[in-house]
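Sequence, please.
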């Protein structure tokens, strides 16, 4: 049975939260800071070490310092499953593959401004990470934030 859940950073609003507010929420400077391009757009990427030494949660802000995209990992203890995501966001508009791991699928809810990295080897489909962005169509997501995702499973070749 699906459970109600909140995601880390639900208090951050895409297009409204500022770079300064993100830094203030963490109470420290980011461990990773870089200017990056995604498609034709330039962003300032702020990354913070949170739950794991392996992964960082990253926030992309535009030239005006407004949050446009966030990518965060979930601890195993979150217990969030893809069934929970379906109950909150509805059916995915696209299922894509990654080279992250054979079990990994990125379930794209572009119109909702969300994508979820799901562990398909778990019966419950545990959610490992998520992305939030301005709602858009699947093609626009895949051309920008999802440009490294694959339409075919690279492990089945």
């Amino acid at each position: 049975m699906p459970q109600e859940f909140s995601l880390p950073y639900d208090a951050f609003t895409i297009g409204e939260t500022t770079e300064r507010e993100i830094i203030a929420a963490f109470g420290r400077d980011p461990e990773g800071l870089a200017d990056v391009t995604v498609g034709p757009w330039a962003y300032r990427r702020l990354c913070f070490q949170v739950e794991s030494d392996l992964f960082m949660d990253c926030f992309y802000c535009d030239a005006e310092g407004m949050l446009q995209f966030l990518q965060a990992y979930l601890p195993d203890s979150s217990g969030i499953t893809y069934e929970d995501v379906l109950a909150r966001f509805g059916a995915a508009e696209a299922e894509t593959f990654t080279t992250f791991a054979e079990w990994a699928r990125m379930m794209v809810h572009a119109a909702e401004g969300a994508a979820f990295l799901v562990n398909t080897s778990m019966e419950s489909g545990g959610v490992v990470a998520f992305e939030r962005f301005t709602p858009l169509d699947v093609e626009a997501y895949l051309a920008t934030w999802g440009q490294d995702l694959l339409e075919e499973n690279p492990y089945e070749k």
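The chain has a mean pLDDT of 90.
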